[in-house]
Each structure stands twice: as structure tokens, then as C-alpha cells.
Amino acid sequence: MIERDKLDRINELARKERTDEGLTSEEKNEQESLRKQYLKSFREGLKSQLEGIQFVNNDGEDVTPDKIRQAQQESGLRDKEGNIITSEDK
Fold first, then answer.
1. Which CATH number is 1-51 given?
2. pLDDT, tens digit, for every residue of 53-79?
3. What backbone torsions phi and psi does residue 89 show, to the nearest 5 degrees?
4. Residue 73 and residue 11: Cα distance in Å, rounded?
5. Does the first or last residue of the chain, that is N or C, have fewer Cβ atoms within 10 Å of its Cβ?
6. What residue ranges do the domains of the chain occupy?
7. How far apart are CA 82 and CA 61, in angstroms?
């Protein structure tokens, strides 16, 4: 997750950008860099959350998409057969 001071700076630059003063070229570069950091952090967090979800249909069958299932296996949340590893299994 991105640090609070960086998020505050992103917002500060966005507010300044909307004023008549605008941003200097240095501030525009800083804004772009901070936004890239924010998006990277956001995407990593979302990926982590999705990897922790097991999708089930109304019949209770695991219908987790293969791409997520594979990521779960790589991170140790599923065994080689594709079954969710619970705390009891460890």
C-alpha cells in the first residue's frame, strides 16, 4: 500500500493542477511518478485479494477461474490437485 504522505502529495498536486497557477514541469514529472507508484500498489493489492478468493456456484462447486487457481497454487493457497489448503491441512 502506498504511504499516506505520497497519497497526500498526489492530491496536493491534483488540486494545484486545477488552479490558474498549474504545475511546473518538475511537478508534472513528480505527479506522473507518484501516480505510477499508486497504480502499481493498487494493482498488487487487488491481485492479492483476488488470489485469496474461492469462487463457488449455487451448488457449492468450486468454479474459480483457472488463471486465479494457478496463481493460488503458486502462492501456496492450493495443493497440486487444485484443492484449497486450509489451516487444518498445514
1. 1.10.287.540
2. 999 999 999 999 999 999 999 988 888
3. -80, -20
4. 38
5. C
6. 1-51, 54-90
7. 13
